[in-house]
Specification:
The protein is mainly α. It has two domains: 40 residues, Arc Repressor Mutant, subunit A; 129 residues, Tetracycline Repressor, domain 2 (Orthogonal Bundle), CATH 1.10.357.10. The chain is 68% helix and 0% strand.
């Protein structure tokens, strides 16, 4: 007997498909096959594929927790964990980057970010602006990491250019585009900027 379809059941099946087979497999037809139903049955729960992928992206963040500690430790922990969660679910990672989730888990994490930034001493308006900037940074860094792959000729050319700058490290010592090291450095710059803005 076929299980009754629910949005939760469909979303979980889509995440499984993406984890196992990658983003190209996340079609309505393939997800329906995973569930043993007609593809049109999915449209009774989601108006289109984008809406389903929005739900899948939010589910991918279900395990992201808010760490204890000072405001900056919480911000760093949340955003780093979001990045790691996206990489654990390669089928939906690009969608997370393009459309940061705004359902239960996305809103839960956004609320934790705004609370941390308010604790940092920002005004309410600046809390909103800083939250937007941080989300945009994570999305852009994630998209860059997905697109970059292994260092290529283009990256080597950029590394050679950096090597010519006075006092700069050799290009071979620079963080790889999209790497965790590069992400952590950029996030540290943003957090320092938030501290300076709050102090001002």
């Amino acid at each position: 007997m076929q299980r009754r379809l629910t949005p939760e059941l469909i979303t979980a099946a889509a995440l499984r498909v993406g984890d196992a087979e990658g983003p190209k497999a996340m079609t309505m037809r393939r997800i329906a096959a995973e569930l043993g139903c007609d593809p049109m049955a999915l449209y009774r729960h989601f108006p289109d594929r984008t809406a389903l992928l929005d739900s899948v992206a939010d589910l991918a963040l279900a395990d992201v927790t808010v760490p204890p500690g000072a405001w900056d430790e919480r911000v760093r922990g949340i955003l780093s964990a979001v990045r790691e969660a996206a990489f654990r679910h390669p089928g939906i990672a690009a969608h997370v980057a393009a459309r940061p989730p705004l359902q239960d888990n996305g809103l839960r994490l956004a609320a934790a970010l705004t609370a941390a930034l308010a604790e940092a001493g920002l005004s309410p308006a600046d809390v909103v602006r800083a939250t937007q900037a941080l989300i945009a940074y994570v999305a852009a860094a994630l998209a860059m990491s997905i697109a970059a792959g292994e260092p290529d000729a283009r990256w080597r050319q950029l590394g050679e250019m950096f090597s010519t700058l006075p006092g700069a490290p050799p290009g071979a010592e620079l963080p790889v585009t999209g790497s965790a090291e590069q992400f952590a450095y950029g996030l540290r710059l943003l957090l320092n900027g938030i501290r300076a803005e709050a102090a001002a």
